[in-house]
Specification:
Elements lengths: L3 E2 L1 E4 L17 H14 L3 E4 L1 E2 L6 E2 L2 H13 L5 E4 L5 E4 L15 E2 L2 H4 L1 H6 L3 E5 L3 E2 L5 E3 L3 H14 L2 E6 L2 H12 L8 E5 L10 H8 L7 E5 L5 H10 L3 E4 L6 E3 L2 E2 L2 H14 L3 E2 L2 H8 L6
Parallel strand pairs: 1-18, 2-3, 2-15, 3-6, 6-9, 9-12, 12-13, 13-14, 14-15
Antiparallel strand pairs: 4-5, 7-8, 7-11, 10-11, 16-17
Length: about 300
């Protein structure tokens, strides 16, 4: 049991959820406001993607990240910012019968350095590092993160003084994360996010969850989440398994059946549940101390 836990709120993500809920933040102003809302509800960390303000499509535009970060910082709200570095590893095959040439309109595949431009400029306290390649739900889409790419990204993140949050979708990803740590590319304390229930990574049943947890080395700090209706149950399960909590509209758009959620709603529901379990929620300052983060503003 983890009696002292922190909540991360993943405020928007990069999927098509904006077509299903009008509460998904899209513009930099909306995304920044969502970070503030989540912090006020009890989240210590806000995990940030950006979207094209006109279409809602996922974006890697550094200017959009810059605006979000500036707005959150100018708000005076104390929250740890965690910027995604997962964009730019998307391969979509042409078709099952003719995989090449790739679907150029849907493929977004760039180099390790380009994936970190916004991180190295804006220097958030945390950025994500998706630690593996996997089939990711759609028929011909592959989330691509090769060992070579991850080693290069890890070195640059380390040199920038940013804490990588290692995104782990299956046991093999955890194995690769251990290798990066053993090679000195990721500093203590190691931070891991267990991403459960996402096709076709690790399922979110108890046996799979505990297999992941039992393979995390002593001394590492980890959170976990699942998607859809399992998001809030996982808030309780995470602390029971010794971890920390992630909620937010990236992973789930519903508060109850048929009731759209806001990020604040999801954080508040998780915080209420955890408080009822006598769990102490860590503040951003306490998370910085726990994870040895560098605050630059």
């Amino acid at each position: 049991m983890n009696w002292d836990t922190f909540i991360t709120c993943a405020v928007t993500g990069s999927g098509q959820s904006h077509t299903k809920s009008d509460k998904i933040p899209v513009t930099p102003a909306e995304i920044a406001a969502a970070c503030v809302e989540a912090a006020q509800a009890g989240a210590a960390i806000a995990h940030v993607h950006v979207r094209d303000p006109e279409t809602g499509a996922p974006s890697r535009d550094t200017a959009l990240y810059r605006e979000v970060v500036a707005r959150v910082r100018d708000s005076g709200t104390d929250v740890v910012l965690n910027l995604t570095a997962g964009m730019g590893g998307d391969i979509v095959l042409g078709s099952p019968e003719a995989p090449l040439p790739l679907n150029e309109d849907a493929t977004d595949l760039i180099g390790a350095t380009e994936r970190l431009v916004h991180v190295e400029e804006l220097l958030p306290e945390i950025c994500t590092l998706d630690c593996g390649t996997m089939n990711f739900a759609e028929a011909d889409y592959v989330m691509t993160n090769t060992p070579g790419t991850l080693r290069t990204m890890a070195r640059r993140i380390q040199a920038a003084g940013v804490k990588p949050e290692i995104e782990v979708f299956d046991l093999g990803h955890l194995w690769l994360a251990k290798t990066l740590v053993d090679e000195g590319l990721i500093d203590d304390p190691v931070l891991v996010q267990l991403c459960m229930g996402i096709p076709y990574g690790a399922p979110n049943d108890l046996n799979s969850v505990m297999a992941m947890v039992n393979n995390i080395p002593a001394g590492w700090c980890y959170s976990m989440f699942s998607i859809g209706r399992m998001q809030l149950p996982f808030a309780a399960q995470a602390v029971l398994a010794g971890g920390n909590v992630r909620v937010g509209l990236e992973d789930n758009i519903w508060l109850n059946r048929g009731v759209p959620a806001s990020n604040g709603d999801l954080v508040e529901r998780a915080a209420t549940m955890l408080s009822a379990m006598n769990v102490n929620l860590l503040t951003p300052a306490e998370v910085r101390s726990k994870l040895n983060l560098k605050k630059r503003w």
